[in-house]
Amino acid sequence: MTDATLPFADLERVYEHLAETLDELPEEQERLFLAQLALALAHRLGDVERVIAAIEEARRGVEDTST
């Protein structure tokens, strides 16, 4: 199985929209929004192992920026 990926320009577009959406939310709603977004995307992806791998990839990305 190959993992489908977005072209860089589309990924930038997603990032911009996500950043704008987070900026519009009250800070106390950001975590809930991100959790709901993750679950909505996981539901659409439909593969629990790929979802878990993405969660771990995101965690490593956050850990890498904090060191």
UniProtKB/TrEMBL annotation:
<dbReference type="Pfam" id="PF10932">
    <property type="entry name" value="DUF2783"/>
</dbReference>
<dbReference type="InterPro" id="IPR021233">
    <property type="entry name" value="DUF2783"/>
</dbReference>
<protein>
    <submittedName>
        <fullName>DUF2783 domain-containing protein</fullName>
    </submittedName>
</protein>
